[in-house]
Write a structure and sequence with these properties.
alpha/beta; 9 strands; 11 helices; 48% helix
Length: 340
């Protein structure tokens, strides 16, 4: 009898636990898998919670590369009902699996740049350089104006940037290098950047700014809006728009084709995020995506640029290969120098 009571108690506890955290795909809650950071997730939650969807969804944050790999591997069988991810992953997944439902045309009519009908742009990320002005002065380093400046020997172990293998923010830097200098010279520049980064090659887009804020590194490459915010808050951070250009990436939401009321609900939720979340998202990520959106003059980049061809996973793979080849050369030189 006692054993039965214990078993029933354990079963109740298990059911209580899953009622709290959600049951994944077996739950009535809409599953949102996202590569978004904390600020973007907070904006999406605010829009959904204040417009009738509080407690009706589960958000599962993942890295861009992790979620991208899952989308490409699982297709329509993915657990998610809604995916927010870099647009190039969504586009490649749609070509591979035809896995996303078409959204209402009323949203598309508002877009500045036309996106495919199955994705709804939610935010734009733009890259730049930034420095810790206090550390720069203390170490007697010159103010950089280009990405190429950071290959100079005086910046050894003083720069930080995201690894393109882990973070889409790292792609913003590489686009500037490869667009301006081509593959041959560009690979050499990337190699020198890796050498000068030393221990400061980061796995997240926000990692470089944290390193520069702490003074562990003096110069970083990352998201422009984060550097501007740090400067506004009185920190010794100054953003720099490199002459190679400020490149941008768009993140969008897409609804997985699963049919029925669940899909319809997911589509309505994406529309709510776009309609009511964009104000907060634009404040955090000041890249206009829809007609009528405006940002402060300080938020407008000095050298806005775009890659000449569409951003797709195949192009990312090509640029990652160039990066890995450059990293291999940098590692070989480091070993040779250490052996002397």
């Amino acid at each position: 009898m006692k054993i039965k009571i214990v078993l029933v108690s354990l079963l109740c506890l298990v059911l209580l636990y899953f009622s709290y955290v959600g049951l994944g795909s077996s739950s009535d809650k809409v599953i949102i898998q996202t590569n978004a950071d904390e600020e973007a997730i907070a904006a999406m939650e605010k829009a959904l919670d204040t417009h009738g969807y509080k407690g009706e969804y589960i958000i599962q944050p993942q890295s861009t590369s992790e979620l991208g790999g899952k989308i490409m591997a699982e297709g329509k069988n993915i657990e998610a009902d809604i995916i927010t991810q870099a647009s190039y992953y969504l586009e490649s997944a749609q070509k591979e699996h035809d896995m996303f439902a078409t959204m209402p045309s009323s949203i598309q009519q508002q877009e500045i740049k036309q996106y495919p009908g199955y994705m709804t742009p939610i935010l734009g990320n733009m890259g730049s350089l930034f420095v810790n002005t206090k550390a720069l002065k203390e170490k007697g380093l010159p103010m950089p104006h280009t990405i190429k400046d950071l290959t100079k020997p005086e910046y050894k172990n003083e720069i930080s940037f995201p690894n393109i293998m882990d973070s889409s923010t790292g792609w913003l830097l590489l686009q500037g290098v490869l667009d301006q200098y081509g593959e041959k010279e560009g690979k050499h520049i990337i190699e020198q950047l890796i050498v000068n980064a030393g221990p400061h090659l980061e796995s997240s887009g926000s990692g470089p700014l944290k390193k520069v804020q702490s003074g562990e590194a003096t110069v970083g490459a990352g998201l422009r809006n984060q550097a501007i915010d740090a400067e506004k808050e009185g920190e010794p951070i100054k953003y720099i728009d490199p002459t190679e250009g400020n490149f941008a990436l768009t993140e969008a939401a897409a609804v997985v084709k699963k049919g029925g009321e669940r899909q319809q609900k997911a589509q309505k939720m994406v529309a709510v995020i776009q309609k009511y979340g964009r104000k907060d998202l634009l404040k955090e990520y000041p890249v206009p995506l829809y007609k009528g959106e405006k940002v402060d003059e300080a938020m407008k980049p000095s050298h806005p640029k775009a890659w000449p061809t569409p951003l797709i996973v195949k192009l990312l793979d090509q640029h990652q290969t160039i990066f890995n080849e450059a990293k291999k050369e940098a590692d070989i030189k480091k070993e040779q120098k250490g052996g002397k």
